Amino acid sequence: MKQALCAMFACLIGLVLATPSHGHALEPGYLEIGPAADNQWQVTWRVPDVSGRPMEIEAELPEGCEPRRGSMPRFDGRAYVSGWIATCENPIWEGEVFIDGLESTATDVLVRFVPEPGASATTLRLTPDAPSATLPEALTTLSVISSYFTLGFDHILGGIDHLLFVFALLLLVPDRRNLIWTITAFTVSHSITLAAATTGWVSLPAPPVEAVIALSIAFLAVEIVNKHKDRQTMMQRSPWLVAFAFGLLHGLGFAGALQEIGLPQSEIPIALVAFNFGIEAGQLVFVACLLVIAMVFRRAIAAWASPNPRLVGFGTSLAGYMIGSVAAFWTIERTAAFFT
């Protein structure tokens, strides 16, 4: 199995090198609409940053609202933000909110709508395939679950640093039982910090968290390279404990995306659980795909030649060096971002 995983590694590294150096998926756009006065609505629009410029998407309110679009957004250090007051001739939920240009992107937009003062918020998710939606008058629990589950699922599958960490765990823990316990520990720990950070119990700035996440991958890379040496490390003795410790950091990274868009105040537990289940579902899909592809590679390699233990060891070490190189690059880049 390990020989097959190492053979797959070149494909994964190709994906890493083709991905922007920030380890997470592109943050979603965010549109918030709430009541201001009679027939007036307070609108806040956040546009993701793309290479120092706002992504070329624009929120557009339903017909009969003026203005339907906001002014040029201003950069707040992480995204581009604009806000305005719109006056609508008809109830705003009778028309459609539209994200112009979304169909040409690979990101989503979350819409948070409060129909009246004191009412519960509704959360909708707009995608490139469905860039418009009618605003509902009332919150539905199903819409919250669907939106936040999908957001978590997309976030983990686009978070290449988290996936690289899981991939390194697969190389380090060949025993299936230990691997299950290790991934379970990782899951439990990042669920704890995800909940703590998004509910305000823990607050850490994002740049140091991102840098330390990269360092955690570098740590596993060193363990991979040194695995065949005659010494027992903490990772070899108790991989679940190391995974649990690093999972606490990765949970803070997951929380960054969720904090950007916020949680519906009346449905915080449901949204948080749905987001976390989305992350776990994406992680399980990734692991399952790796194991299936590894099985195919293993059978193909076995049909071509008998496994060579020395070759397997060399391939594992090479994978460790490649993982470490990518992690070192991320660490340096994210640390340098402290001073920009």
Describe this protein with a few key phrases.
340 residues; alpha+beta; 8-stranded mixed beta sheet; 3-stranded antiparallel beta sheet; 9 helices; 17% strand; elongated
Describe this structure in words.
The structure is a single chain. It contains 9 helices and 11 strands. It is an alpha+beta fold and 340 residues long. It folds into 2 domains: 204 residues, no CATH class; 112 residues, no CATH class. Strands 1, 2, 3, 5, 6, 7, 9 and 10 form an 8-stranded mixed sheet that branches. The protein is elongated and about 75 Å long.
Radius of gyration: 23 Å
Structural class by helix and strand composition? alpha+beta
Structural domains: how many: 2
Task: Write the H/E string, N to C.
Answer: HEEEEEEEEEEEHHHHHHHH
pLDDT < 50 stretches: 13-25
Overall mean pLDDT stands at: 80
First and last CA, distance: 44 Å
* Portion in strands: 15-25%
Number of strands: 11
Helix content: 40-55%
Q: What is the overall silhouette?
A: elongated
Largest sheet: 8 strands, mixed
Question: What's the tally of helices?
Answer: 9
Give me the secondary-structure topology.
Layout: H1 2-17, E1 29-37, E2 40-50, E3 53-54, E4 58-60, E5 65-66, E6 74-75, E7 79-88, E8 96-100, E9 109-113, E10 122-126, E11 132-134, H2 141-158, H3 160-172, H4 176-198, H5 206-225, H6 234-237, H7 239-261, H8 268-304, H9 309-336
Parallel strand pairs: 1-9
Antiparallel strand pairs: 1-2, 2-3, 2-7, 4-8, 5-7, 6-7, 8-11, 9-10
